[in-house]
UniProtKB/TrEMBL annotation:
Its main location: secreted. Pfam families: wnt. One of its GO terms (cellular component) is extracellular space. It comes from the Eukaryota. This is Protein Wnt. Keywords: Developmental protein, Disulfide bond, Extracellular matrix, Glycoprotein, Lipoprotein, Secreted, Signal, Wnt signaling pathway. Belongs to the Wnt family. Gene3D superfamilies: 3.30.2460.20. PANTHER family: PROTEIN WNT-11, WNT RELATED. It comes from Phodopus roborovskii (Roborovski's desert hamster).
Length: 354
């Protein structure tokens, strides 16, 4: 009887950890929205996959935003796969949205990254859509109050970061604001990491300038505030992923807070990604923990980084194979003004993990 009771307690604990953990990123399933769905009528909102009721309501009241949000879901997936292409965990499970594996269902380091990236991406995409005139509800960002520097003037069309952050947070944070969706610790973790993503986006806002003048003399430069490319924001978040802090949900004063597990004398920093549960090494396939394994993954024999055959293959060794590559070669410039090239074929040796 006691053993049976312990099993029941373990199951209840696991259920408490996993219930609703990934609701906040189910909206990435919008990446699969068919092009045939026009998204020009409010009844279309209920046909969209992965949304909670609060997001459906936001869809109905901000219908003009939905094409941009669908695009953001696709961009988030591409950015994640690109950022982790050389890692054992290569973000392939993000494409299973809304039915994720445990690598993203639990409060892992990987889910921390995806929450941060998805929050940054939706705000980035909306801010850029304002700039390009794709959204009727917003326009260019405000002109800064400070002067741009000698020989420079403010002009152009700034990325509307404030509008992107406002609408992006409303949509992507909506599932975490719903009552009774998972444990309080998971909610706090998801909201914290989403805000870290938006913080990384704010930090990417920079002054960009374009030269004007006779024969490119650059006597005057027009400047505006623009966001860095999403791949740069993803790279920043990947650095934070690599140094993420494991936390516990612990009483501090009258409420519980997330505090570093090994350094609980200090609060969690606003700039750091946090996670509750350790991840596997992702070496072997194990769907119970959301690991696809690295068998048949391509590796780099000469690299010392995460894509090296030693690290990628987890010491199992690798198999070589040859591949034929066709590329442009013997290119020649002709006056004026075009280039002709020949097509050359060469054989390269590649390696895959055993």
């Amino acid at each position: 009887m006691r053993a049976r009771s312990q099993v029941c307690e373990a199951l209840l604990f696991a259920l408490a950890l996993h219930t609703g953990v990934c609701y906040g990123i189910k909206w990435l399933a919008l990446s699969k929205t068919p092009a045939a769905l026009a998204l020009n009528q409010t009844q279309h909102c209920k046909q969209l996959e992965g949304l909670v009721s609060a997001q459906v309501q936001l869809c109905r009241s901000n219908l003009e935003l939905m094409r941009t949000i669908v695009h953001a879901a696709r961009e988030a997936m591409k950015a994640c796969r690109r950022a982790f292409a050389d890692m054992r965990w290569n973000c392939s499970s993000i494409e299973l949205a809304p039915n994720y594996l445990l690598d993203l269902e639990r409060g892992t380091r990987e889910s921390a990254f995806v929450y941060a990236l998805s929050a940054a991406t939706i705000s980035h995409t909306i801010a850029r859509a304002c700039t390009s005139g794709d959204l009727p509800g917003c326009s260019c960002g405000p002109v800064p109050g400070e002067p741009p520097g000698p020989g420079n003037r403010w002009g152009g069309c700034a990325d509307n970061l404030s509008y992107g952050l406002l609408m992006g947070a409303k949509f992507s944070d909506a599932p975490m604001k719903v009552k009774k969706t998972g444990s309080q610790a998971n909610k706090l973790m998801r909201l914290h990491n989403s805000e870290v993503g938006r913080q990384a986006l704010r930090a990417s806002l920079e002054t960009k300038c374009k030269c004007h003048g006779v024969s490119g003399s650059c006597s005057i430069r027009t400047c505006w505030k623009g966001l860095q490319e999403l791949r740069d924001v993803a790279a920043d978040l990947k650095t934070r992923y690599l140094s993420a802090t494991k936390v516990v949900h612990r009483p501090m004063g009258t409420r519980k807070h997330l505090v570093p597990k090994d350094l609980d004398i200090r609060p969690v920093k606003d700039s750091e990604l946090v996670y509750l549960q350790s991840s596997p090494d992702f070496c072997m396939k194990n769907e119970k923990v959301g690991s696809h394994g690295t068998q048949d993954r391509q590796c780099n024999k000469t690299s010392n980084g995460s894509d090296s055959c030693d690290l990628m293959c987890c010491g199992r060794g690798y198999n070589p194979y040859t591949d034929r590559v066709v590329e442009r070669c013997h290119c020649k410039y002709h006056w004026c003004c075009y280039v002709t090239c020949r097509r050359c074929e060469r054989t390269v040796e590649r390696y895959v993990c055993k």
